[in-house]
Amino acid sequence: MTSGDHPGRGTATTAATFTARRVHALRIGVWTALGVASVITLLGVVLVLGALRNDQLIADNRGMATAQVEQVMFNRTLIRYETPDGVMHSPENGVLYPDGLVAGQLVRIEYDTTDPELAKIAGRTWLLTLLPVSTTVLATWLIAAPLVWWQRSRLRALRPRQDDPGP
């Protein structure tokens, strides 16, 4: 016997398969949205903790110098400075907290005397990372929370009711 012998049997199977696939896709969507938002939150926390740690390293072995801003790019600001021993340094990863600098500018910096590659603009601290990180995390959850809510409401709508006698 085939599904063509019983009217409506193939349609019910197709509808059930479609609903099952839809439920599966929505569940994956919920976990994906929560996973992405959680990873972005974790990255933000690690970024703030990393900035705090860098500031502590510099504070433990503080050296002061005047640096010249060599190049300002989107992802880093390159500087060049001389330490008291006469060695010129240009940190490969740029300077920490470079907001508002322009090429050619002279700035006071603080650096780690045990690792001159770790330098920051004098007077600026890890607290400057809080606003951009918290804004990013907030925006992430403002997008993820309604998305998860919508997906879960669709899941609830697809589940059969307990009091529904069904066919």
Q: What is the element string, with H for helices and E for strands?
A: HEEEEEH
Q: In what range is the share of β-strand residues? A: 15-25%
Question: How large, in whole angstroms, is the Cα Rg?
Answer: 28 Å
The unreliable regions are none
Widest sheet: strand order? 3-2-1-4-5
Overall mean pLDDT score? Answer: 88
Tell me the distance between the termini.
Answer: 22 Å
Task: Work out the number of β strands.
Answer: 5
Helix percent reads 40-55%
The profile of the biggest β sheet is: 5 strands, antiparallel
Alpha plus pi helix count: 2
Shape summary:
rod-shaped
| SS-based class | alpha+beta
Description of the structure:
Helix content is 49%, strand content 20%. Helix 1 runs antiparallel to helix 2. The chain is of the alpha+beta class and 167 residues long. Strand 1 and strand 2 (77-82) form a beta hairpin. The protein has a five-stranded antiparallel beta sheet with strand order 3-2-1-4-5. The mean pLDDT is 88. It is rod-shaped.
Notable characteristics:
about 170 residues; alpha+beta; 2 helices; about 50% helix; about 20% strand
SSE topology:
Blueprint lengths: L8 H52 L1 E11 L4 E6 L5 E2 L16 E7 L2 E7 L8 H29 L9
Antiparallel strand pairs: 1-2, 1-4, 2-3, 4-5
Helix pairs in contact: 1-2
Quick gist of this model?
By secondary structure, this protein is α+β, with helices and mostly antiparallel strands. The protein contains two helices and five strands, in the order αβββββα.
